Known about the structure:
The protein is α/β, with parallel strands linked by helices and 415 residues long. It has 14 helices and 17 strands. The strands form five sheets. The protein has a seven-stranded mixed β-sheet with strand order 4-10-9-8-7-5-6, with helices on both faces. Strands 13-14-17-16 form a four-stranded antiparallel β-sheet, with helices on one face. The site of pyridoxal-5'-phosphate has 12 residues, from α4.
Amino acid sequence: MSAPVANVVPAFDVESVRRDFPILDQQINGHPLVYLDNAATTQKPECVIEAISNYYRRDNANVHRGVHTLSDRATHAFEQARQTVANFLASRRVEQVIWTSGTTAAINLVAHSWGRSTLQPGDRVLVSWLEHHSNIVPWQLVAAATGAEVVPIPVTDAGEIDLQALAGLLDDRVKMVAVNHVSNALGTVNPVAEIIRLAKTVDALVLVDGAQSVAHWPVDVEAMGCDFFVMSGHKLFGPTGVGVLWGRESLLDAMPPYMGGGEMIERVAFPTTTFNVPPFKFEAGTPNIAGAIGLAAAIDYLGSLDRQAVMEHEAALLARTLELAEEVEGLRRVGTPAHSAGIFSFLLEGTHPSDVGMLLDQQGIAVRTGHHCAQPLMERLGIPGTVRASYSIYNTQEDVSRLFEGIHKAKRLFT
Length: 415
Ligand code: PLP
């Protein structure tokens, strides 16, 4: 009698995913490219490149108010892309999705629109020590203009937000808590549900910077309970120069425009102009139409993959990385959060991060070195920077092995 056939679930087919990304198939400095700089920007699948190129080849026109066919097509594709983002984030309404040029622009929009119109002297904005500069500096600019204060939320030596310290900072002066979902410098996955629960005990708003999370797992902004969520297209297999602000309807309705110009008005007159409704109120000028269409193609692409399998694949890459790291004498992982997403930040004793980065590049391995736009965090950890390898859907166990061959070579050469 033959053995019963197990119910075989096909493994995540990384080789098939790799074939969708033409850039990966090349040699760098005589070696096959190993791209481990995904936290800075991800590569683009063929379907995204095609969507952008097809738009310019066949449909290019300015959006809204056009009476001709091309404008109609461009407007339809652009607004359809907004719907794709709304579905992707599980937004209740499509009007809650505002196009921006990226995460940075989205945070600036909230800081300058909501912040300038709401914050009073003595009010507080809490941001964590883990933040990217783009979730610190806009708040500092607005604080300087309003008399409000930006107060950092402590992080532990492991690189996690100290929730007890956060609870201790919360009082009625706190009007906004702005934190990232995943730290770009260390990979820490922040407990945003708990942070939101705590912030709501003092009725503070919460902005979640999802620049580093959306490529790794599905996000449901309504279930999360945040007030604002921001992300960049280029970290999600989409093009640069496009991103999203998602906001609560009542907040978006009440917020004043940030930039003035075409598209965001209802009627322009002297002396008074009236404004359009969200999302258009916040979208002055010709938008990045091709970018929005490219981002929608990227989201569709991601949607065609088994996202649970993607998560398991990326977790296996990180797990193997941490195993191999244990075997390298003098290697220190920077940040040891209990939950991390696809990022491995490290220092190699006796070497400078940029020397290690350059040596890895000579072997075809792309990593990032430096402070990762998180200078306060580096200061908190007492280091000038790190070497950062960040994984994505198309990385392989072979990539991990190549990274460690490179690290061993750096050790031999520099120490
Ligand atoms: N926030 C985080 C956590 C990031 O990792 C980045 C980019 O690295 C940003 C914000 C800024 O994103 P962008 O440069 O696309 O505006």
